[in-house]
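User: I would dearly like some help making sense of a protein record. This is the protein in question:
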Amino acid sequence: MLTSIGAVGVMALAGANPAQATADWTNWATFEAYSSNNASYGYLDYRYESTGDGWYKAQFSYANLDDRKGGDGWGSVIRSHYDTPAGAQWGIVAQNDDGGGDFNPGETYYNVKNVWFEVCNWNPSSDATYSCVRMHKKTG
């Protein structure tokens, strides 16, 4: 289910809401994570902008995903979670089979907030996930 995701990810991922929403794009920030067993690794660049009505427009770019443990039957997935006027949603940013990689050049999303991303191990046969870890802003 790939739906418009975007916005406030940096605020939600950083765990803070701005005192006053900005009308300009934030600077790009890189978010990354390894799954809890280090079998999957993903990162993406992300920024957002307030639309002035409590919702946000956002972009992510250069989403990269790597299955680091090929041959185990599991691939990887980066999922986004976010709120829309219709309620909580989620979408797939990147997904790959066992031993593969995936790249998403980017997308822009509208009318979203409380966005966050996670990296999981993913089974292409059953669609099951495990070892999920929330992506955090890269430091240094």
Notes: The beta strands are 29-34, 40-50, 56-67, 75-84, 87-96, 101-122, 129-134, 136-137. The helical segments are 9-14.
